[in-house]
Amino acid sequence: MLALYTILIHATAFGLQFAQFFSPKLKQFVAGRKETYRILSEKLDPNKETVWFHCASLGEFEQGFPIMQEVKTKFPQYQLVISFFSPSGYENKKNTPIADAVVYLPLDTKKNAVKFIERLNPVVSIFIKYEIWPNYLNTLKKKNLKTILVSGVFRKNQLFFKSYGSFMRKSLSTFDHFFVQEENSEALLQSIQLNNITISGDTRFDRVSHQIEINNRLDFMDAFLGQTYGVCIVCGSTWIEDEEVLLAYINKAPSSIKFVIAPHKIETKLILQFQKKLKRKSSVRYSEFKTGASTESSLAKTNVLIVDTVGFLTKIYSYADIAYVGGAMGTSGLHNILEPATFGVPVIIGKEYSKFPEASKLRSLAGLFSVSTKEECTTILNKLADNSSFRNKTGMICGHWINSNTGATKIVVQYLIDTIFPKN
């Protein structure tokens, strides 16, 4: 099966050479990988040892970031290398100061794995959440290099736990240690005779818990909200499916309620289509304010602010009274609910969240609400907007939940100190 897997990877690489001409994202995917070894040669000192973090995308980077910070602080003698699989992760974080080098991970062929790992020769390789690449993992094992998985989440329907998934189970067995988020993942790993496991929790809680301690003020948000608004509803990382269920409420909401829409895809065509659907509601795009097309006074008179740029959403959540987090109304995947929750903000999401244990947990605590239709969305938004006592109580549940689930980073870093990094 591993041989067949490798053939499929080679076939994928071949197909991408043609597919890239029809997709800007795939073009980045292919072109970026051609730069991997040039970047490593330019950025790394061959005489210094490295610690390698691998992240699928931007979300996994956020999970790994607290550990990266601790490693950088406590062990500055090591070079820190971050690899990404997807363009959305790499393009957003290619210049992050936390790393000595940021690159695309070459596709998972045996040749690529050997070349990449020999170039890094990492003291430890840290994979975030669920990145399982058999040829890389097998190569690390053959070279007797330490490898751990952090913030892992496993589900029964994954290939590892199927009768025909033996080659993937073998890949899992190469890890020296698993740090998983919850008991179900531990039980699944134990069911295939893997016992080198620690239930550490999710490092994202550590990441977001520090956000409340920094300055989250944004001039354009201060101008937009002014002094007389009633409730601010922030709709973050929305997709078309999310926006469709939100529109009914937005169009009927009283003028005292302000809305911030931060779409996941920053595409002008889609944003203009959404603006046309706003009935009797004034709207403005952040880009208009940035370029001077909209003034602070006109921004204050606007009902809906559309943030058509990236990098502000976490701070924008600090202004929210209610948050709608996108991705779960369709099949794209739920985005980060921890960011608004850390500010003590009630959270609303769509219906598809079974793969996200944090959403299930927060819903069971009554800090999060899942909706399937525009009618359900309107009902819960009305209740939260109109009843400040209910809104505040729900928000307190969210804030307390974040604070009570921190500490995963400390557990992982202590393991690194005890078993990986040599004592000084």
Largest sheet: 7 strands, parallel
DSSP helical segment count? 21
Query: Which class of the largest domain in CATH terms?
Result: Alpha Beta
Percentage of β-strand residues: 15-25%
Q: Could you name the CATH homologous superfamily of the largest domain?
A: 3-Deoxy-D-manno-octulosonic-acid transferase, N-terminal domain
Quick description:
By secondary structure, the protein is of the alpha/beta class. The protein has helices spanning 2-19, 24-33, 36-43, 58-74, 87-93, 110-120, 134-142, 166-172, 183-190, 204-209, 219-225, 240-252, 268-276, 286-290, 296-300, 313-317, 338-341, 357-364, 374-386, 388-403, 408-420; strands spanning 50-55, 79-84, 101-104, 124-128, 146-152, 177-180, 197-199, 231-238, 257-263, 283-285, 304-306, 322-325, 347-349, 368-370. Helix 12 (240-252) links the parallel strand 8 (231-238) and strand 9 (257-263).
Molecular structure report:
With 424 residues, the protein is an alpha/beta fold. It has two domains: 2-201 and 407-420, 3-Deoxy-D-manno-octulosonic-acid transferase, N-terminal domain (Rossmann fold); 214-403, Glycogen Phosphorylase B (Rossmann fold, 3-Layer(aba) Sandwich). It is 47% helix and 16% strand. It contains 21 helices and 14 strands. The protein has helices at 2-19, 24-33, 36-43, 58-74, 87-93, 110-120, 134-142, 166-172, 183-190, 204-209, 219-225, 240-252, 268-276, 286-290, 296-300, 313-317, 338-341, 357-364, 374-386, 388-403, 408-420; strands at 50-55, 79-84, 101-104, 124-128, 146-152, 177-180, 197-199, 231-238, 257-263, 283-285, 304-306, 322-325, 347-349, 368-370. A seven-stranded parallel beta sheet has the order 3-2-1-4-5-6-7, sandwiched between helices. The chain has a seven-stranded parallel beta sheet with strand order 10-11-9-8-12-13-14. α8 links the parallel β5 (146-152) and β6 (177-180). The two termini are 44 Å apart.
